[in-house]
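Question (not urgent): is this output format expected?
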Amino acid sequence: MTPEDMRGKSPDELKDALRDRRKEAFNLRFQRAGGQLENTAQVRTVRRDIARIKTVLAERASSDAKPAAKRKKG
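Got this back:
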C-alpha cells in the first residue's frame, strides 16, 4: 500500500488497516520463531506498512491541530 493510497482513505479505514497489519506482524513473528516463515522479507514489509499508516494518521492529527495553534493574540 502506497502513502498516496493511504491518504485517500478515511481515518477509520486507516485504523482498521493498522489493526490488520499488527495482527499480521504478530502472526509473522510466531512463524519466524517456529521456523515456519518462508518469506522473511514479509516481516519487513508489514513493519513498514505499519509505519506508513501511523505517519499518515500523525500528519492528519497535526494538520487538524495547526489552525488552533496559529491564532494570533490581539
